[in-house]
Write a structure and sequence with these properties.
This protein is mainly α. The protein has one domain. It has 7 helices and no strands.
């Protein structure tokens, strides 16, 4: 991992040492997982389900995204998606606009950083 990559991830709140421990010290494996996440459709699936009023599918997508973001060390995004996941877990589909805006920003910030690595 270059210093530039490390700095970008740390600016997002990623604890590099903690994350690499989780990935058995393999930076290559971590970067492969980052790229896989950037190409997954969790966020879009959640938005589509939300637009259709399908709390179950929205929950499934948000819950999957929550797990992956936690493992990748994106704590800021994990916290945002965790809150929304709990809304869907209750069978609700109303997400306060400010909460959805915050989640959307956090998601796009993460994707932009991943794409810049």
């Amino acid at each position: 991992m270059t210093d530039k990559q490390r700095t970008k991830l740390e600016l997002l709140g990623v604890d590099i040492e903690e994350v690499l421990e989780r990935f058995v010290g393999s930076e290559d494996f971590y970067f492969r997982c980052l790229n896989k996440f950037a190409n997954e459709s969790y966020f879009n699936d959640m938005e589509t389900a939300l637009c259709k009023g399908d709390a179950g599918r929205a929950f499934d997508a948000a819950h999957a995204m929550k797990g992956v973001t936690g493992n990748l060390g994106f704590k800021f995004l994990f916290e945002e998606v965790r809150d929304v996941t709990e809304i869907f877990r209750k069978g609700e589909t109303y997400v306060p606009p400010e909460k959805m805006d915050s989640l959307t920003k956090a998601y796009h910030d993460a994707i932009n950083v991943i794409n810049s690595l």
